[in-house]
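Input (structure):
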C-alpha cells in the first residue's frame, strides 16, 4: 500500500459534523469517511468520463 500523505483541511463545521455522524454510522473514523467519499467521487468521475468518450 502506498504511503499516505497528511495535509490540513479547512471545512465548514456543519459539514464536519455530518461527516462525523455518517462515518460513525458506517463504523469509520472521520478521516476514513472523508477518504472513502473522495474515493467514491473519483471512481464515479472516472465512470462518467469513460461513458462520455463512448
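Output (sequence):
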Amino acid at each position: 500500500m502506498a504511503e499516505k500523505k497528511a495535509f490540513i483541511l479547512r471545512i465548514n463545521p456543519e459539514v464536519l459534523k455530518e461527516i462525523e455522524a455518517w462515518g460513525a454510522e458506517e463504523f469509520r473514523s472521520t478521516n476514513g469517511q472523508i477518504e472513502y467519499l473522495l474515493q467514491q467521487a473519483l471512481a464515479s468521475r472516472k465512470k462518467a468520463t469513460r461513458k462520455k468518450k463512448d
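Notes: The chain has a mean pLDDT of 93. Residues 8 and 18 are 19 Å apart (CA to CA).
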